[in-house]
Fold:
Amino acid sequence: MMGTGVDGAMIGGEAILGARGLTKRFGAMCAANSIDYHLGPKEMAGIIGPNGAGKTTVFNLLTGVYAPDQGSVFFDGREITRLSPQQRVKLGIRRTFQLASTFDNLRVIDNLRLAYYHKQRQGRCSLGGMCSADLGEVRDESIDECLEQLELSKAAHLPVASLPLGSKRKLELAMALIGAPRVLLLDEPFAGLSEMEIGQIVAMLRHRCTRRMAVLIIEHKITWLKDLVDRISVLVNGEIIADGDYQTVLDSPVTRKSYWRVE
Ligand SMILES: Nc1ncnc2c1ncn2[C@@H]1O[C@H](COP(=O)(O)OP(=O)(O)OP(=O)(O)O)[C@@H](O)[C@H]1O
Ligand SMILES: [Mg+2]
Structure:
């Protein structure tokens, strides 16, 4: 199924990220089954589906963590199926993980400084050559802005290891945003968070991402997606079974049968 926008056209022009016939098998199980998907350059879209449907697998295929058994991945009109995850990050494809991934041994502010430093160097550096003193030299308004917006200013000088999950997840999103991505892939950004923390993340996405970049969000807490995304797709058994605007997709008989399991 083609993932064109609700009105049939890509939001922001030609697709920035696309998949054609994307297939990934684990033994006899097909985690992604010939998936066709397109994301507009300024579109915010959601992917929902039951546990084990293949949602994270699709992200792993799009970001180069897995090579597909069949099919191709496109970015900005160019095939990137064989590019490494690092090469895709350089193109501007960023993601967050189902379990927050931050540098737990560093302070909150140093995580953000590191993300900023990477962006300035366009990924041409490793943590190896850096020490905390060097990181102290990295300063930018965008770092303070991020801290403030996510109410992390007070925690700026705490080690990340001491933070609750909600703060870690906010930090991970802030790190991805500091890299000025063109496509942002979020794997269950609301999982394990309080309503208040989810509200902060939603506000940050609205403020920093809407109509500025392409965002694809995997989420189980679908009511939060309702007023956030332009389009939603339902993945079941490695296949996109429905795609369109939130209400139409959720009300559709095929979603009710395969996702909600009601007739
Ligand atoms: N590296 C792997 N090796 C073997 N099987 C895998 C691997 N990764 C995923 N799978 C299997 O592929 C299927 C899809 O998994 P995936 O993690 O993509 O689902 P998901 O939709 O993200 O689920 P959840 O909502 O629980 O996160 C599952 O049956 C899973 O066990
Ligand atoms: Mg998953």
In short: Residues 26, 29, 31, 49, 51-57, 98 surround adenosine-5'-triphosphate (ligand 1) (CB under 6 Å). The chain has nine helices and ten strands. The first strand starts at residue 17 and ends at 26. Residues 165-178 form the longest helix (14 residues).
